[in-house]
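Researcher: Next entry in the queue.
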Amino acid sequence: MAQRHVNAAIIGSGAGGGVVAKELATAGLSVVLLERGKWYSAADCRKDDLFNQRTQVLGAKFGPDEERDPRVAVDDQGRETVVFPSDGGYSNNAACVGGGTFSYGAMAWRFHEKDFRMRSTYGAVEGSTLDDWPISYADLEPYYEKAEWEMGVSGDVAPDPFKSPRNKPLPMPPLAPNREYKILHPAAKRLGLHPFDIPMLRNTVPYNGRRACMRCRWCVGFACELSARTGTHNTVIPAALATGNCELRTGCMVKEIVLDGTGKATGAAYFDANDRLQQQSADLVIVCGGAVESARLLLNTRHKLFPDGLGNRTGWVGRNLQSHSYASAIGLFEQETYDDLGPGASIAVCDFSHGNTGLVGGGMIANEFIRLPYQFLGLVPPWVSGWGNEHKEFVANAYRRTIAVMGPAQEMPLADARVQLDPKVKDHWGIPVARLSGTRHPHTIEIARFLAGKCELWLKEAGAAQTWKRAPGKSLSGGQHQAGTCRMGADPKTSVVDKDCRIHDVDNVYVIDASVHVTNGGFNPALTILANAYRTSANLLKTWKGTRVQS
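Model: Structure for this entry, 551 residues:
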């Protein structure tokens, strides 16, 4: 069943899709925003540890649907498993209006200048597809600023000497220091490090009609009942809808991009909330489903000109899947360190993001978000039993006396870390599911181990009586901050989209999400996704000619 023709059909309402919808609708384009999940509200903020999205084994509170959306995971021994959103190997992200921004931790990092020039800075890495972005930090800087001020970012990065140039400070001050901050800050200074307040997409004062954070412990993985945590669901999407030019449709699972005989996109075919196959015609199709689902959609869009999937003429769709390999250390202190002030994460250092001898990049390190009691079970040291009286006694005695410090290691992308279509398994709608396979690059593990050591050193200096480290193994990285599968680049032979995120092979299909990231930095990528969505929207509008984009 065909719908009213629009200028742009946007698939996915997360960090990328929400911004694009607002920018295009505000400029007068007609937009349909297709989201496979629901639009949740503060009423869905059930303060129950067992519903916490971050506890993967208990289910993903905000989608995808547990029964309808399986995937296939292939481990480093080649063993295949059908996995569901509540399984760790699923590589989950929220599927709802706002996407991951509805329930994320909301760290709002700018990448560093060198993060866009990794190949030029460090040279080739054997076995890796490490490369430069086709854009620079300077290209993105005005849009970082726009995201910070339009959406609202708090914190204080002024004390960070490693930050890249910026023209304006953050619009909101940081939250008052919590107990962990007060313990870690002087220790970092004694080590010669440069601590500062983490930038957050979180209101610390009333901002743009939304209230300030009340510092509850139920933050990451939950709906914010005050709407103090910033996402596309409570900022740009309402603004897009207010123009009258944007229609949001939830419960819509896109099957494929519809192409005409010449290979030009004419819209999107999708199953609506009642499982009826619909077709939305549009002048532009903009894919914003995240690194796994965007790649899956392109691969499922077959045509005589693109028998292996749209944008996949040279086989690059789905490759270079990267995430963040988290390195950490946990410290057990004699005194209580827990003060029940959310979100918990508050202090960071960027001294190890670059310039580490023998390493290609690095990553920031920071204290972790509040660990709810159930989550704390995963922080028990290796010398303590995983069950029984010893385990229970340790948790009871240590829960209020630990600090976790961790950081996302910048990963070395790999061509064989990838998203493909599984030849057998299909979802509820009969669409081939994503098949995830590959491993981490050995140097990624080296970087992570280095960062874990720095985390431990910081905790020891802060007075931890006991410490223990954690670093990732070689299994596929995709659990948090998925990126890279529709790489941006100038050469169609080694990339999927151009610098403006338009697919090389088709002039009216764009991919605007983290899948276009060439590298993923040593930071949470949310602000970079937002900034790039603002940038690409601006460039699209500059060349918009009523029903098409002029090349």
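Model: The chain has ten helices and 18 strands.
Researcher: Noted, moving on.
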